Amino acid sequence: MRELCGRALVREAEDLVETVWIEGLDHAEHADPTVRLILERERASFARAARRRAVEADKDSRRLAAVTAEMVQLTRTGPPPD
User: Fold this and answer.
1) Which of 2, 35, 51, 81 could form a disulfide with 29 if both were Cys (CB 3.0 to 4.6 A apart)?
2) What is the mean pLDDT of the chain?
3) Cα torsion for 5, 61, 55, 24, to the nearest 10°?
4) Which 3 state secondary structure label does DSSP give 34?
């Protein structure tokens, strides 16, 4: 459970960092038009990373649902006999 929650927090932090980075590049582009190429490359890179994180989040969500279902089942039936 901790691992899944930790992974979710890391994904949120990555999203935040990427958003701030792109906003900074947007502002820099107004001062220096050559930044446009960097901005376009970074946006494409971040879009790929966002899709990868979405896939990871979906997998983690399924794992969390499976763990939750198992815990619910254990509370209903009790622990397995020794």
Assistant:
1) 35
2) 84
3) -40
4) coil
Is residue 21 within 8 A of residue 73, CB to CB? The reply is no
Q: Out of 18-22, 27-31, 52-56, 73-77, which region has the weakest mean confidence (pLDDT)?
A: 27-31
Contact (Cβ atoms closer than 8 angstroms) between residue 15 and residue 53: yes
- Tokens 């930044």 — which residue? 35
DSSP symbols for 29-80: HHH-TTHHHHHHHHHHHHHHHHHHHHHHHHHHHHHHHHHHHHHHHHHHH-SP
The token duo for 60 is: 């983690």
Residue 59: which pLDDT band, with cuts at 50, 70 and 90? Answer: very high
